[in-house]
Amino acid sequence: MTLFNESLAAKKQLKGVVSPTPLTENLNLSDEFESTVLLKREDLQIVRSYKIRGAYNKISSLTEQEKNQGIVCASAGNHAQGVAYSCNLLKIAGKIYMPKTTPKQKVKQVQLFGKSFVEIVLTGDTFDDAYAKAVEDAKNNNKIFIHPFDDIKVIAGQGTVGLEILESCSDPIDYVFVPIGGGGLAAGLSEVFKHLSPNTKIIGVEPEGAPSMKTSIAKGKNTALETIDKFVDGAAVKQVGNITYEICKENLDDIILVPEGKVCTTILRLYNEEAMVVEPAGALTIAALDFYKEKIKGKRVVCIVSGSNNDIERTAEIKERSLLYEGLMHYFMIQFPQRPGSLKEFVNEILGPEDDITYFQFTKKNSREVGPAVVGLELKNKNDILAIKTKMISKGFEFKYLNEKQDLFTQLIG
Is 51 a catalytic residue? Predict the structure, then answer.
């Protein structure tokens, strides 16, 4: 059976389990980009992401013997929720490995959806660490491993997102922006469009700090990245699937890399303007529109909003990354003269009336004429930073600009 036919079969399998999610126009985005921007709201799915589609399609296809063996999976959160929900529905014992860095909200949701049918094991710092442990458990204990993306049944389940889009929209679709983590959704959806709407351009979107699919396609082979930025946890993997790589390299028209800071700006905007709560991976496709604005003008565009499992405890980090990206947050290591009034002079004569000190850490050393301080400034206008640097130089404040010194920034600010 071809992958496309597998997706058609998956649609029947998922009936009554997965509710079709809305495909609605976003007027603000349509106005901004002078196009028709439609959002496929997988953030409104029963487990708040599309992952239930692939997980249930795979698990429900197991034989009775395989179901009795028990299943195991690895996930950064959303696949885990899909597996947990499926285990509960089908009354199958499941063991779920998740990175220790997984937001607490996602861990709690996994337990909520799985109830007594799942056991959660937190291990390692990345998805890849959890994946290795899960594969080892499945091998040693004869359990069925449910891959989060590199499995035909899983890919076919995710492909039902594409079927729903085409059923919901009678007008031709020019572009679909789809997030890429391991590539399951991009592979399944692109295969559906290849058969039913071949003129639609499928644009994959990855976080800039985890460009595993783009790197692999550029190198002509599935390539593991040595390091990744884990912030966009639902789409940050070191290596995509072998199956998904082969499909995506043939089906995708382009892959855009979006800076993590831009993702954060988009998350905050969607919350403030649309009352939408999306996770970082869920904001990827909307954040990507800025990088395609000339090409999509006058076109009909679909963005997959892949999930809404965001942890409120990450809000401060999201705001910080957004401000840094927008050029409104700046960090310095400043050598303050150890004389009375030097800080007052800095505030009154260097900062503008609307500039704010949001971080200050000072170490006074009595035997020295100057003392270092790490200072964080939040500006109202990003163009004001040049004037601040100029004033510091003219007033004799020696400084290092930490925004441009990533290693030092990470060490001092975290």
Answer: yes
